[in-house]
Amino acid sequence: MLSITGQAVLDDGARRASVVVEGGRIARVTADPVPGALDLEDAWIFPGLIDGHVHGGAGSDFMDAEAEAVRRVLAAHARGGTTGLLATTLTASPERILDALAAVDRVAAEEPSGARILGIHLEGPYLSPRRAGAQAPEHLRHPDLAEIEGWLSAAPGRIRRVTLAPELPGAQAAVERLVSAGVTASMGHTDADYAQARAGMSWGMRAATHTFDAMTPFLHRAPGVVGAVLESPELFAEVIVDFVHVHPAAVRVLAMSRPPDRCHLVTDAMRAAGLGPGAYRLGDYEVHVAGREARLADGTLAGSVLTMAQGALNLMELGLSPQAVRDMVSLGPARALGLEGRKGRLVPGHDGDLTVIARDGRVLMTVVGGRVVHRDAALAGAADGMD
Question: Following CA atoms 163, 337, 206, 269 in sequence, which dihedral angle do they give, to the nearest 10 degrees?
């Protein structure tokens, strides 16, 4: 049994309570004293944070296509407060993508020692060359149904999201096939105009990848993809809240345009996440990291070094309530993945996934299925809340 006391973020707000986990699931949440509970005072206790868009961390990337690299990424993001994630690929050759899918599929079957793989997100290769960002232009291509069938066969049941540009030839057939397979088709890295974005939604596209970034902006006579997203609260809209990719005011506008559970914080983290400044690789590119920014030599943003925990605190800095933040970092992503009945809330019966964040931003503890996969060094020697 694991018992932790702090400011639990619940359906009706945040209040001091103890969360008790037994047998890998939340057994109870109570304001009554729990003998032996680890009391973390005013630290936030969130249901486990879920990142729907992450490429790498701790010097590794899912595109490395090696099981040990996958495990390093999962451990790195557990240290950043993530309990579950979508392992995200990059635009590459067909062979490299299949190799990456195979490695992720293999590790996903293991008992997690870090964050849990909840599925795979293919970001590309069906993207616009005009909005490619840090995606390799030589490997961009039009949607190919045979290639999609290969993905579905390489990682059965693992593909949960595919980002593509709806204006490309063959996009409609691709979207319809993905939707029929239970995969969320997401608009991203797209030069579509407003009408093309709306057409994509009519085919079944139900998400927007890192909203505002790598898509046509909102202009009053040409509302673009951003305009289509803002007026469509039913879409699941990702947003990178590192205050580098998107201005705080734009984050607030996006959050106000939809229920909080339809606006999802993502990191889009690359292999430098959890490390310091320096030069790193993202696909075929060298990326320079300084402070909060990861950029190509020409200044193009190339993912981030954000953690989910820091992103959650950034949302609070914008004035969002802990409950609204919970919806953006946990409950909403769980709903988008069809996991609402298991994850995203601190209620009895849900998976024992917890993220405990100190007011100064440190991740004090990350718990996956009742197992502590990260514990801050400052807690060494403290009662562990387990019996």
Answer: -40
Range 171-180 burial, b when 16+ CB lie within 10 A, else e: bbebbebbee
Instruction: Give the domain ranges of the chain.
Output: 2-46+346-379, 49-336
pLDDT digit string, tens, across residues 319-360: 999 999 999 999 999 999 999 999 999 999 999 999 999 999
Strands 56-57 and 60-61 come out as antiparallel
| CATH dotted code for 49-336 | 3.20.20.140
Beta-carbon contacts of 5 under 8 Å, excluding residues fewer than 6 positions away, are: 16, 17, 18, 19, 34, 37, 38, 39, 40
Topology of domain 2-46+346-379, CATH: Urease, subunit C; domain 1 (2.30.40)
Convert the pLDDT of each residue in 124-178 to its tens digit: 999 999 999 999 999 999 999 999 999 999 999 999 999 999 999 999 999 999 9
Which pTM was predicted? 0.97
268, 327, 351, 353: the catalytic one is 268
Query: 268 an active-site residue?
Result: yes
Amino acid 3: pLDDT: 95
